[in-house]
Amino acid sequence: MELKPILSALLRNKTGAILIAAQIALTMTIIVNSVFMIMERRGDMDRPSGTDEANIFVLSYTGFASDFNEQTQIVEDLDYIRSLPGVIDAIQSNSAPLIGGGWSMSLATEEGPDKNGTGTAIYFADDHAVNTFGLNLIQGRDFNPEDITWRNRTDTNWPGQAILTKALAENLFKEDWRNAVGKTVYISETQPINIIGIIETMQAPWNGWNGLERSMLVPQQTLFGGGRIIIRAEPGERDRLMTDIENGLMQNYKGRLVRNVRSMEEIREISYQSHKGTNTILLVLITALTIVTALGIVGLASFSVNRRKKQIGTRRALGATKFDILRYFLVENFLISSVGVVFGALFTVGLNMLLVSTLDLPSISWYYVPSGMILLWCIGLAAVYGPAKKACQISPATATRSV
Amino acid sequence: MLVMNNIQKVFRTEQVETHALRDFSLKVEEGDFVAVTGPSGSGKTTFLNIAGLLETFSDGQYHLDGIDVRSLNDNQRSRVRNEKIGFIFQSFNLIPDLNLFDNVDVPLRYRKMSSSDRKQRIEQALETVGLASRMKHLPAQLSGGQQQRVAIARALAGSPRFLLADEPTGNLDSSMAESVMQLLEDINANGTTIIMVTHDPKLAARTPRNIFVKDGVVTEKKRSSMDGTDSLIMQPAIA
User: Fold this and answer.
1) Is B213 in contact with B44 (CB distance < 8 Å)?
2) Residue A147 within any structural domain of the chain
3) Is residue B67 situated within a structural domain?
4) Domain count, chain A
5) What residues have CB less than 8 Å from A141, skipping those under 6 apart?
6) CA geometry: angle at A111 spanning A106 and A113, to 5°?
7) Mean pLDDT throughout B60-77?
8) Which of B69, B83, B95 is most worth mutating to test chain A (most A CB atoms within 10 A of its CB)?
9) What integer pLDDT is reported at residue B223 of this predicted model?
10) Which of A89, A316, A386, B154 has CA 20 to 30 A from A168's CA?
11) Using an 8 Å Cβ cutoff, are A205 and A124 in contact?
12) Does A318 sit within 8 Å of B106, measured CB to CB?
């Protein structure tokens, strides 16, 4: 290997090499951190909501007529929907996972003010909730019909029982969540709630919330003048039922608006729209930066080949094979890239530390840095291959000609 | 021994066909010192390029040290160049970013020699040309004559059978040219075969054998042994 002469030649022509190394370092810093952010977002987007998303859809209703009796209407609507062929179950609720709007409260394991509470999303629902959402009840029992009460907008009292997600139970009972069933937690500081069941997963309505997995089912149906109906269809029936039920409800009673009929898949899509947008922007940035860096390397290598035509011809005349010439340029580029990726690794970690401290992002996983280094090395070698191949074609007779 | 028989070299473009060498035949014995002269564009450099395996030829036969050159692939040609031929160029062709030691090292590296062997050869070659004390200098820090001496050291370091020199004194003033020519004569006296292309009739006159190339055709200029003066005898350059 002719590392030493390549290195000494590079050190005598530093400017171009330094610029490319700096570009590689910058590119690596941005690419690695961007890829990390993309993967973090993808990870967030892939978290399961805990529901049977493929078969669930949600609609909103708002009563406006003077004869609108919400309690009666809810019962009639749910009876109607549940009787339709293709419907597995349906509930009225205040919210649904990832929908963006909902209710949250603080729960504590001890009664009284100034107790450290744990935030939780609240889903008001009847004894059909577990079946409608397709939740996995892993401990305790479901609600019974007699557990369900009605809740007015002005009510401040809470029913005495609830079903919690495992994540919420883990947070409340850090020593052992498995013993949570039967225990009492307190809401609004003093109101006791007996935990009757644990469900494996049910995400909250807000995807950006750090307690996304902490939710609680409360056995109440709401009389807030409007709400949501969640319907679970049999596989393959969802799209048909979305239209049928919207039309059916409108026909059954015209004193309330039915709108925002959306599948859970659409709700997820809308919920993570900004994530997807940011990821797209980052991907475009990464691609553009990679192309610019690769073009920079191609440019420098091509310039270098053109400038050294006579030198290459002389090397060939003195016995270099085409492969020797190819290897020379690949090694030269590898050395430049190596300087770039080493600084790139330092800058990557530095930028991540800055992002962690300022934007509360998680620390980058260790394998991102070596992966980035390998990627940039490969980009460098791929970019220089063309000009290096061109250099191989320079005739040894160039040594005796005026170039 | 270098033997060329009826070598043809034709450069073709879409419109033009140029015969750079026509029925070029030449035999160079081991230990010869041959000067190749001729007007510009006569085919001297083309001959040197073909002799040095820098270019291929269109037709004919060429045996270098018993090897049929035509049968060699590109890698084999590189290897023959590296092991059997030393080149000296008009404009020295030193690599400006490398010091003298590394410049002389270039062909040796391609021969995959051990670093200790290379070091010994480089030091010896630079010693031969009188530049051993300046091996850490860059070419730009030397005069033209010294640079050509480095190029000669580079050519000699691999102990080649043939030294091909393309206008080795063309870029030098007369005193430097004289010292370089003296060096070449010393090298030839030690048994290395030299073929030198030159424009300078005085330098050509110092060599035992003169080849004249015109319009791609070679003739040999034989010396008269009677009065020591040259007389041009047009005859094929092959015995």
Assistant:
1) yes
2) yes
3) no
4) 2
5) A196, A197
6) 70
7) 94
8) B95
9) 58
10) A89
11) no
12) yes
